[in-house]
Write a structure and sequence with these properties.
By secondary structure, the chain is of the alpha/beta class. About 25% of the residues lie in helices and about 35% in strands.
């Protein structure tokens, strides 16, 4: 991901939501020193994961709600972490900024 030399804090995020606002859960958050936040969605499947239209909407909504709930002014990017390369389609391109597969981490 190109962040080896950047100071980063790692956490997760969960908001129950309120009346009229949905709750969200984010698996991993990388809050970086370069005014960037990576919100990471982790998926482990026996077959390549495919982002559908409803799931792409969910990912985009998570990003917007995270910004709203935290009040961050940093750039926010969505990272998909999978055990294998996901199926490429328009929904993947529209909702995910970077894909990381397990072998990239080791």
């Amino acid at each position: 991901m190109g962040i080896a030399n950047l100071y980063s804090e790692v956490s997760s995020f969960r908001s129950i939501g309120s009346s009229g606002e949905p709750g969200i859960q984010i698996d991993i958050i990388l809050d970086r020193s370069d005014k960037t936040v990576n919100i990471c969605e982790c998926k482990y499947y026996s077959e390549p994961f495919e982002i559908t239209k409803p799931y792409a909407t969910t990912l985009n909504q998570k990003k917007e709600l995270f910004k709203k709930y935290t009040g961050t002014r940093k750039n926010v990017f969505t990272i998909l972490i999978c055990n294998q390369v996901p199926k490429k389609n328009d929904y993947l391109r529209e909702s995910v900024d970077k894909v990381v597969v397990m072998e990239d981490l080791f």
